Amino acid sequence: MSCSSSERPPTLPGANCPFPGIAIHTRKGDIPPMRIKQPLLTAWFVIITLSTVPVYADSSSAATIGNPSAPAAPLTLDTFLALVRRENPVLTAARSGIDVARGWRSQARLLPNPTLEVEVGDMATDRFGDLGESVNTFLLSQEFVTADKRRAMTAIADTEVTISSLEYEVLEREMLTHGRQAFFTLLAAQERVAAFERLLDIARRGAEASRHRVEAGDASPVDTVRAGVALSQAVIGHRHAGAAAANANVALQQLTGCSDGALPQIGSATTLYELPSEAESEASLLAALEQHPAARALQAAVSLAAGELTLARKERWPNIEAGFGIESVPDENDGRDESFVIELSLPLPVFDRNQGAIAAAKSAYRQAELQYRAGRVQLTTQLRQALRNYVAARQSTETYRSEVVPGAQRAFDLVKRSYEAGEINQLELLDAQQSLIEAELAYIDNLADLRQAQAELQGLTFTTAGNGTTQRSE
């Protein structure tokens, strides 16, 4: 499996190391009922599953996984998403659901089986089993489906296959969205760990310098207490960053089905620092939303309800059963007379004209239409929220990239020159460097938020919105 050959991003100035719902029913009878999962419930299931992963895994492990299909080389985003498509256990199970729907479609296309009837009558009780004196009838009958009901049932089954396929696409998009988010979450978490390591080193040096100044009588003991508090906060932050990285690593394992081992380390963090392009216009994104599988599944659900209503109306007309056979009766000369038998069975729709099923199908059709409208409103709302989140996150990231971090860097450079000129002490230098790293940490957080918003927007539109990148300036 290929891995990224790109190098780590340039070192940030001042850093000592590289800166890092719809319930759809089928009619009872010829086609067994199938339950179509609601996309929103599927999304809740995925979110709840991902939120329950443990936080005590070792994020630094790069051991080979027991699953032989998992890659051994460092993971790039494209490689990881391909692995999610292929190995995710939820998607694997969902693919089987499509095969189930196809099986019921094949069943709906089959003709009713013929019936062979054998009737023996007028058998003497004193010679039981003597067929020579009995009236024997052999009849072969066949049920004929009327009113073109078989075509209606096949159309329903076709629609159910379509819905199953669309639901799989919805689930796949959700998994890929979570995959992108988890990938960049782990990248950001690892960068935060590296930044906190630098911050921890600065806090330790600051505490040591403060202690020496107090011992020399150049500073108040209060400075030592403050430096100790800063060191404790850095230690806590480093621990939390490590736990977050471990949690993100386990989330990646879960998405790929690698529960009994750790994935190899992900590739370069360069992609985290790339600034995505501006989003497309809302109108173009709304047009792309029309092709979202959830929107198409809602429309297919309306078609399914319409098909069930059509079938319910057709079932007012009963099926006809016709039979043809031979009847053999004993004659007066100890022989047997044979004659043809024709049988025709037609239920009379006097009381049951499928009125209840038709009324239920009409209500189900109205419900499907209302759910379609509600689902479209929900998708549109989600898109607009995702677009606003993306625009806000991108603007915030751009501000940190062009103003906050460079400003903190300039401040550090000025303090550093003053320190080299002997105008300030080491504590002031360390304080400026700490402020720079804290700005870098905030920048990482904004980058992570931006990638989360970008993944959400891409999952809704499946376009290249926000895909273009501009390399981070040095």
- Average pLDDT, rounded to a whole number, is 80
- The rounded distance between the terminal residues' Cα atoms is 32 Å
Low-pLDDT regions: 1-71, 464-474
Question: Helical percent range?
Answer: 55-70%
Q: Remind me, CATH topology?
A: Outer membrane efflux proteins (OEP)
Strand order within the widest sheet? Answer: 1-2-4-5
What is the count of β-strands? 6
Order of helices and strands: HHHEEHHEHHEEHHE
Total tally of structural domains: 1
How would you sum up the global shape?
Answer: elongated
Q: What is the CA-atom radius of gyration, in angstroms?
A: 36 Å
Note the total helix count.
9
Structural class: alpha+beta
The CATH architecture category equals: Up-down Bundle
Q: Class in CATH?
A: Mainly Alpha
Output the CATH homologous superfamily.
Outer membrane efflux proteins (OEP)
Largest sheet data: 4 strands, antiparallel
- Approximately what portion of the residues adopt beta-strand conformation? 5-15%
